[in-house]
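quick one, 169 residues, struct below
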Amino acid sequence: MEYLKLGTILDSHGLDGTMKIYSTTSFGNLRYQKGSKVFCYNEKTNERMELTVISYRHAGTFDFVKFEDINDPETAKQYKGFEVQVIKDPNDLKVGYYFYSDLEGCKVVDQNENELGTVKNVEEFPAQITLRVKKLEKGEFFVPFIKQFIISVNIKDKIIKINVIEGML
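---
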């Protein structure tokens, strides 16, 4: 089973056990609906615990989530540093949309099929989503994930074809 990271628990917030989570999802309002099930993952022990959402609010890059059975700051603090995850389900996506984790590791080629590098990670900037690409040689470059630059995305073969403009590389 594959999981998607929604964020990392930073600390407790308030007296009722609400958790402050550094968000890495663009869909917190969908993922944290009341009654939704998520997983709290401890990377050190490789343990995963299912949690049920009671309430959610978003502020800046943070999600504030209250879970069932976590009712005080001391209990909430035990989860500091843990990841919040959901089961990866491709049916959650509309056509033409991708999980960031599926884009990472893809080979990047130009319009003439010349290999340029590999997607290191996906970054969210105010203007748009951007691919950070590790060059074959040394260094990195950025590709805005918009139709003017992205020619095609083949998740199955892990290849992204881009339109290279002067100064990009």
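Helices lie at 28-31, 73-77, 100-103.
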